[in-house]
Amino acid sequence: MGFQNFLRNVCTQLGENNKPTYAVVAIAAVKGICRPTFTMMDKKEKPETKKYTALREGLTELIAIPVYLGCGYLAGKCSRLFTKNVTKEDFLTNKVKQDIANGISNENITKAISNAEKQLEKYKIRATNNLRFIGVCAAALVAIPALCSITIKPVMSKILKMPKENNEENTKQPITQPQTQIRNYTKPAVKLQTYITAPQTGMKVGGV
Hints:
Number of strands: 0
Distance between the termini: 130 Å
């Protein structure tokens, strides 16, 4: 029963306040563990290739997790700029607003105000989650590729102790074309054989 209650509480909390950041961080964590593992289990690839690929995949997801968290958090904080002018009065009907202005207080007005407060809270949560989703998308499309292109190559060079690339002047070698010896080509003489037919003798057909 204890485990069932714990699982029910976790599912309830995630269902009521399911942030987009949770999903992408969970995916990045699984990819950062499983993809390098499966890469190293491949027996057909060379050890150097497997090591390079697994390290690159692991570093990519390691960079992605804090970027997702940071972008989602910052985007969620920006929701205050869009919701600061929204009040519970915006969710009340004109009749209820008029009754409140006239100083009328009854059970229906109290319920209407309570419902307006709940709607305002839900509105703020939806706005925050929507902006977090936009922040996560921006992280996946812009921030993470930019950081990976800047950091992964030098980090991998230090870990794998890869030699530095030589300058283009040292790496470029002059291209020498093989000298082909041109010989004078003379067309061989063709011996022409003449065939001379011998004179035909004897009786011809028809007596001619």
